[in-house]
Amino acid sequence: MNKLTLPLSVSTLIESIGDRTDFTTAEITQLLKAANIQKKELKDFTTFDHPKKEGYGRKLVYQTNHFEVLVVSWAPGDFTAIHNHGYTNWGAVKTFGRLEHSTYSLDGDYLTTLFREKLAPEEVIPVDQSLIHQMGNPYRENVLSIHVYGTSQMVDGITENSQLFEIGKGEVQYVDGGAFYDLPKSQFAIANSDLHADRLTTIGHYTQLLNFYHKTGVRGAQYRKAVNYFHDRSFESRLTTELEMDEKQVLYLIELKKAKHFLRLLGESTQTIDSILMDLNDPENFS
Ligand SMILES: [Fe+2]
């Protein structure tokens, strides 16, 4: 990779990181902010035309054996699967448009949703070793982001050995850095096959799988499982009860409406979700 072809602001960031390996996430976040990288400088690194099977566009722009810089291209509907960041000890992401961001906590084999937020343009968020998250673009415009991942050890690929949380299969998978849904067996190793998740995380996972299948036009290995998850009548009665008691009710509702939207686009029945929304007396039920 020729450093000279990089925009000045990105080169300046790279020089300011230099050989240092012991940044805190706060320090790297500050450096990325200070670099003041502009969207227009990254036009040569966009990959909005990425292969459909890859959930988003990923362009490595610089790499040493202790940090890397990536430009990610989010076309409308592009989402990562739920993942962490391999050897990353410190890192940061700058957005150049609106994105959705969800974070998770893993306790043993059990994954739960911590929070979901909307990221604004020009926002810089920290990435550390404990971060398990999902990013994506639910909006109608293309969005770019730039990502810096670093490690205190010397490694060949910082985000190699990342973990991907495939809730539908109950698997935690080791992948090479691309957090894509429904990877073929040749592209991952299984780290754990006893993964469980709370209801909201599971609904979110299957909703994004439906989005992925809609976007790719391919009904992949987990298609029927994802559709059937939302057709289960026992799921309906349990969920209605749980929802009435849960403080994250709003997030469930958003997720269910998204699932309904994708089921409809895929030509599948939305009857069970319609019943749940009606049970909950949601005024926007059939909007
Ligand atoms: Fe990530």
Task: Give your account of this protein's structure.
This protein has helices at 8-17, 25-35, 199-216, 223-229, 233-245, 249-265, 271-279, and strands spanning 57-63, 67-74, 90-95, 99-107, 110-119, 124-128, 132-136, 143-150, 162-166, 171-175, 189-192, 196-197. With 287 residues, it is α+β, with helices and mostly antiparallel strands. It has two domains: 3-192, Jelly Rolls (Sandwich); 198-279, no CATH class. Strand 1 (57-63) and strand 2 (67-74) form a beta hairpin. The termini are far apart. The mean pLDDT is 90. The structure holds fe (ii) ion. Fe (ii) ion (FE2) binds at residues 83, 85, 133.
Q: How many runs of DSSP E, i.e. beta strands? A: 12
What structural class do helix, strand and pairing data support? alpha+beta
> How many alpha or pi helices?
7
Q: Based on the structure, what is the oligomeric state of the protein chains?
A: single chain
Biggest beta sheet attributes: 5 strands, antiparallel
Q: How much strand content do the residues show?
A: 25-35%
| Ligand list | fe (ii) ion
Provide the CATH architecture of the largest domain: Sandwich
SSE pattern, N- to C-terminal? HHEEEEEEEEEEEEHHHHH
How many discrete structural domains?
Answer: 2
Low-confidence stretches: none
Strand order of the largest sheet: 1-2-8-3-6
Question: Any idea what the CATH superfamily of the largest domain is called?
Answer: Jelly Rolls
Give the proportion of residues in helices.
Answer: 25-40%
Question: What is the CATH T-level topology of the largest domain?
Answer: Jelly Rolls
